[in-house]
Amino acid sequence: MGNEEELEKICQKIIKLDPKMRSARIINSRGHLVAGGMKKGLMSLEAQKQDEMMFMELALRVRMRREFDSEFGPVHFSMSYRDKVIVMSFPLANDDVLLISSEKELDFGKVPFAILKIIKPLKDLMKTF
């Protein structure tokens, strides 16, 4: 879906959208980290082993959501508002997914739509499959 350097640039562009952003990561269909990571100076709230489990679960969840595409249309993003963070996922081509985390104070009425504009080329690949 694009080379790693391009994907890293996209992740960095997303992290710079808002000071409340914590991470931007691209996960492949098998739940492996392809690009991105935490914002410089921030520590992940979960351990690395938990990251791996979360990535695999996320990859599965994104594939499962496609079951209802014919009834409701495709998912553009999903968001969880949690006690400590906001977590968003954006399906990409080839069952890959962009995983975003932010502080709870993020303007989640605007930022996800700005992210959709940034990742449009990665999502457009989905239409060709």
Structure description:
This protein has 129 residues and is an alpha+beta fold. The chain has one domain (4-128): Beta-Lactamase (2-Layer Sandwich), CATH 3.30.450. Helices cover 36% and strands 22% of the residues. The protein has five helices and five strands. The chain has a five-stranded antiparallel sheet. β3 (78-81) and β4 form a beta hairpin. The mean pLDDT is 88.
Write the layout of secondary structure elements.
Blueprint: H1 4-15, E1 21-27, E2 33-38, H2 48-65, H3 69-72, E3 78-81, E4 86-91, E5 97-102, H4 111-118, H5 120-124
Antiparallel strand pairs: 1-2, 1-5, 3-4, 4-5
Summarize the structure.
The chain has 129 residues and is of the alpha+beta class. It contains 5 helices and 5 strands. The protein has a single domain, classed as 2-Layer Sandwich (Beta-Lactamase), CATH 3.30.450.30.
